[in-house]
Amino acid sequence: MPLVMHAPPAGAAEHAAASKASKASKAARTTTGTLVALPPVVQPGTTPASPRNAGQVIATFAPARAGRVVQLERLVGSTWTVTSRKRTDAWGSVAFSAKPGTYRASTSTSTGAVVTTTPVVSRTWTPSFQDTFSSSSLDLSVWNDQRRERESVYAPRTCARADAAARRVEGGVLKLGLALDPTMADQTCTYTTDEGTGQHSYLLTSQVSTENTHLFGHGIVAARMKPQQAKGMHSGFWLLPEGTRFTDGDPSAGTEIDIMEFFGERPEGRETIGSFVSYYEPGWTSVQHGGMFGKARRALSTGARWWDEFHVFSVEWTPTEYIFRVDGREYHRELNAVSQARQYVVLSMLASDHELDDLTPDELGQTADVDWVRVYDADAIG
């Protein structure tokens, strides 16, 4: 029987080419990319380090996939010039150092389609405020230990009061901790929660602020921190309005902006960061937006927990929104309750009544470590 060679139907090659082009076009449509220019807020690591000065651009491609090759280009005259290539992390994101200029980023999809971000402009970033805790003690011309006495109504913290004895500066970091209250050494505190009544030793907590020295408006506020492992306490980096004054029902007059709160280890190993914005309605009724964000765990190195590493936590606070980030990666955007008031920075380690059942004496030596704090006001953002 003769071997018959069948030619492809007329137009088959054109159809295959069109199909391939269609798939590439679809991939380009379903893969999206963004590029954002930020001050140097990407600095993970296991040891203290000086803050960086060069601006950074963060490219993110969705759907998130680790390992994509991303190419960064800088506009030189009228020509786009490749400056760097890196692979994406678990966020589908990659950070590049960027001297002042115009940049764009691109990546290729599995079908060969190229997805390119909208260009952004990187600029020189000059902080309006910073502290690197490089002295042997806390700079009291900048920071004040806030007076927060024991109370059982609002927080409540029946068994704890803030005191300078619970914090220290050591090795280039501010260490925020708890301590036993020596003035109440022979007494036991009784507290009540929704779960019942408990008893605990009286405690000292840490809470320092720029309340009397530096107030800030819209901008980017960032701190490089490594939180504690222990439960029974929570570390925090937050902003409060000038005079710690709230106006009932009017968040524009000032809010509590919790950039980062961490409540310690969880048995399932899924502990994460909380970010919240709060204000009050009449009758001291709290209204809270935000939550705990598991997505933030993508910032952790393989096998690491939050207390193993420093990360930069930041909020970009504008007239219309708050953008919460860890190492430059956005994990929450809040459009509600945007403050238009001047606010001050607070760093703390606190122990509320509802946490005390989890706090054991051997954990009192644990601290949250703050490597540096920086503020870039709105003029720096441009």
Automatic annotation (TrEMBL):
It comes from Nocardioides currus. This is GH16 domain-containing protein. Gene3D superfamilies: 2.60.120.200. Residues 121-381 form the GH16 domain. One of its GO terms (biological process) is carbohydrate metabolic process. GO terms for molecular function: hydrolase activity, hydrolyzing O-glycosyl compounds. Belongs to the glycosyl hydrolase 16 family. It holds the Pfam family Glyco_hydro_16. It comes from the Bacteria. CDD domains: Glyco_hydrolase_16.
